[in-house]
């Protein structure tokens, strides 16, 4: 086994820095797409954070916040495949621009919300933005291979994931400050502006051509807007099925974690609200660091190997996070471990996206991402329900440990898959 020396690693990171500068400096379209995603996702976190706080302050009801969240996520479950079909049927650049414009316009009614009786406006806007966000995601991911060369895909996807984590960190803080200083109107104004800027940036993208060797090289045209994913190559169809199974396992676990993270910090670790905020911030910081590390030094591992190995590592770190309180009754290891988990999480995300972009042809790529998003959303909701039911019966830690074991299982699935 070859040992990686520190000097070799430093040379690799230095070379990775040059590759990142070359990617960002030499690829105008990717630079615009990345910046548009960073700005619009920051706006998403601003509105998500500020609106959740405003709704609770307005109604005093946790049920209202839960209904709003459910309506925003439900379209992913129902419309994911249809959204993917749209990304394959229509010009993806124009679809992204139109969606940004419609998102900006759809947020304006929130400025009229003044009393609890107007919560129907919030619910309608949540559903509207949920539908459009469902359309947006597969088009964005399917566009990347058309503007980034194959050898740079892992690096480009890692940078995209890092931008998402940076948007989460910045947007959550900005949303809280904005709603406190200027109320809901300030939050809406920031998000509307973010979508407007994103639309302008993406309107300037040069119309990309399908990557060489994809649909134009022999794949047949995909079906209509029925959301089906019918691949002519058996091995590629197997790859999509593996990714769907992976996403279902991971989505179920993420639903569990989203439900039990706050009870874990409060009841198991004995932390207060500030500890929970630190816990989530450390998770975002770890994701940023992990995305940067992968972008700097993606290595030569195949996307499948990167996905499988990183997912197993994430499961092991999560298992240590959930179990250490049984032996060490202290709070400080939690943010350290969740931050450390961000490293393999970022690598797994980059590996997953790159693998999904390479197991099918361009004519069906939007459908694939739509199906994957639908599988993730559906099992995520199921995970939330299961965690709510089992957390109080089985216990918080055992249920979270099952989630960690699921990650290890998903990683093994990816590693053992054979692209026949």
Automatic annotation (TrEMBL):
Membrane topology: Multi-pass membrane protein
Domain of life: Bacteria
SUPFAM superfamilies reported for this sequence: MFS general substrate transporter
Keyword hit for Coiled coil: no
Keywords: Cell membrane, Membrane, Transmembrane, Transmembrane helix, Transport
InterPro entries (UniProt xref): MFS_trans_sf, TM_effector
A Pfam cross-reference name: MFS_3
A GO cellular component annotation in the UniProt record: plasma membrane
First-listed, main subcellular location of the protein, grouped into a coarse class: membrane
Coiled coil: none
Cellular localisation: Cell membrane
CDD domains associated with the record: MFS_MefA_like
Protein name: MFS transporter
Source species of the chain: Nonomuraea phyllanthi
